[in-house]
């Protein structure tokens, strides 16, 4: 239980810090000051500005699942697993809950170096009071940005830089996170669909062979998918498909 808490607590704090990091603190303070400046004390509805920060933080915590999906390897993994299930021809096996669980724990496994770096450079110093919250946010964002940049294609990054009318950055550190995240998502979707296409090809060949054989035998009333499904399952088991799929997904992020 203690070891489990050591893993989960840094992950939760990292996601919360990531949420807070996406909001410019200076803009929040400026907006709150402009809202309350010049009002009598009786009309100061905000009172302490910490109240506004708490409300914003609680709102952003509700967005943690979306942040988890869009800033980690979860998207690529779940799309590939869904394509694999469809290519085999199984509708609800494995169930969606199983696929999501597999994708979640594979994501934790792949992201463990990034999480460990965040834990070492941001969470532990902040927990021990060695750095401020602002410094912890900056240090926590660096490993995640580096991970996304490694997986982002240059064409996608240039596209969003041009759309955003951003000046050409001198280094990767000058690129805004609001540009990196959509570029990373686009690259992940491209890779996921390419992998899904490659997974479809061998099973598509089996479907074509079975359909041609049944038609040549005059058995047009027999559904080809019913005959092809056992052959596809047998092929997948013989080549140890699950291990090959997981190995390809894991090594693809190295």
SSE layout and pairing:
Elements: H1 2-21, H2 25-36, H3 49-61, H4 64-71, H5 74-88, H6 96-127, H7 133-151, H8 154-163, H9 177-216, H10 224-238, H11 241-251
Helix pairs in contact: 1-6, 1-7, 5-6, 5-9, 6-7, 7-9, 8-9, 9-10
Write a concise keyword list for the protein shown above.
254 residues, mainly alpha, 11 helices, disordered N terminus
Could you explain how this protein is built, in words?
Residues 1-9 and 16-49 have low confidence and may be disordered. It is built from eleven helices and no strands. The chain is mainly alpha-helical. It has helices at 2-21, 25-36, 49-61, 64-71, 74-88, 96-127, 133-151, 154-163, 177-216, 224-238, 241-251.
Bin the helical content.
over 70%
> What gyration radius follows from the Cα positions, in whole Å?
24 Å
Q: How many distinct helices?
A: 11
Low-pLDDT residue intervals, each spanning 5 or more residues: 1-9, 16-49
Largest sheet: none
Strand portion, in percent?
Answer: under 5%
Shape summary? elongated
- The first-to-last residue Cα distance is 30 Å
Protein structure class: mainly alpha
Number of strands: 0
H-E string: HHHHHHHHHHH
Mean pLDDT: 77
In brief:
The chain is an all-alpha fold and 254 residues long. Helix content is 77%, strand content 0%.
